[in-house]
Write the structure tokens for this entry.
Amino acid sequence: MASNNDDIPHTGSLRYDEDQPKIPAVAISTNDANLLSEVIDKEGTAKIYLETHCEMLPDILSYNVIGEMNGTERPDEYIVVGGHLDSWDVGHGAHDDGSGCVQSIEALRILQELDYKPRYSLRAVMFMNEENGLRGGREYALQADKKNEKHIAALESDSGGFTPRGFSFTGTDAQRKKLRSWAPLLNPYGLHDLGSPGGGADIGPLRSSGTALFGLRPDSQRYFNYHHTAADTFDKVDKRELELGAAAMSALIYLIDSKGI
Amino acid sequence: MASNNDDIPHTGSLRYDEDQPKIPAVAISTNDANLLSEVIDKEGTAKIYLETHCEMLPDILSYNVIGEMNGTERPDEYIVVGGHLDSWDVGHGAHDDGSGCVQSIEALRILQELDYKPRYSLRAVMFMNEENGLRGGREYALQADKKNEKHIAALESDSGGFTPRGFSFTGTDAQRKKLRSWAPLLNPYGLHDLGSPGGGADIGPLRSSGTALFGLRPDSQRYFNYHHTAADTFDKVDKRELELGAAAMSALIYLIDSKGI
């Protein structure tokens, strides 16, 4: 999934077609893949020695982490902003998705610092286990359903901590029209992209109960240099770009909370 | 001029008010400035030992570097795309303005590879000595005037090799209207910012002869992390972002050349 040529393999998932033989597979870097292709083109064949130490460990109990600001008018209805807490183990998971977690906390912190009293209850949710089966997101939606917690909107940041360029969206036509009506408020901050569909992996399971889903759309050019690799480290995150994303999220939460969706 | 707190001073110019005493001045980093303020706040005074080895060297002869594609319909009229060749000596000058130079070359190379035959003559100009007096830009305009070379438009990239977001512009109302009419062609590529005024330092001297001036507007968030510092090195430039800027410039040159301005 790399967008550049380098020596860093991108980790990821493997699925088998049940009708086909199960051939062992590992991720290799783009440079290695190109080298391998060249050798095969030239020699017609290639002999490779490859050693891998991956293993599947047993499940252990882990948790979503949730912070909340209570609503003043509709405390039993929720607006959620979130990212996911887990990451692939090769790097720090700085852009995927440490950025989304701290931005979600920051989006609410900004509103708190402004002494804003939300109409709805606002939650910052750090979803657990997105990468390996979306289990935090699924469990969150299940619990919301069980507890009859109505979620009017959810916003996820899971595309990296780069300069924000807009929000993706999945919902009704009326909701889309409302989002578009906010364009004059968002465009001056470079938030032009208000396209569909959208949302995020962790908040996806909320859709079945009618929650409007939003995803932060940051500048996308560097994400797949880092995503799921040893290069996704803290030093790759620019503080100012990260903060702009959090501010954009805070602005959208404010609009949804104050004007409804 | 830093946008972040770090230990790297940003070089730059110093001008004196003739009516005031000439106090020696040096650039220090934002972290050092904050430390100094803290010490003075606490102690009321500060004693500093500071050693600097800067010197003004005598002028030497240097040159603008120019590449050209000949126009098929109006070979004596010019569209210029450029950056500047010199940089502050503390770093590589990778974003300021190595990026602008290679993008200017690339903008014309793209058109050549597409076998595009320009109506006007197209020039990629690497201006010399922007940082220390704009002498390459001034001389270029002087020579253009002397040789009666009509320059209908000039585009400069001197804001870093980041993801392009649009073009700044200085020209007539009719030209601005024309640029705006191209928005539907530019917006799908994230080029939304088509504001005024604009251009660039090197192409500024062309304005007096009526040349329409355009400046590439890349994402601005990281430029002043690097600008004029030891951190403005090659590794800070993302190849993909750099190429997108060059492609945007190529697209604008194509529009100006084929539709006029």
The longest helix of chain B spans residues 239-259.
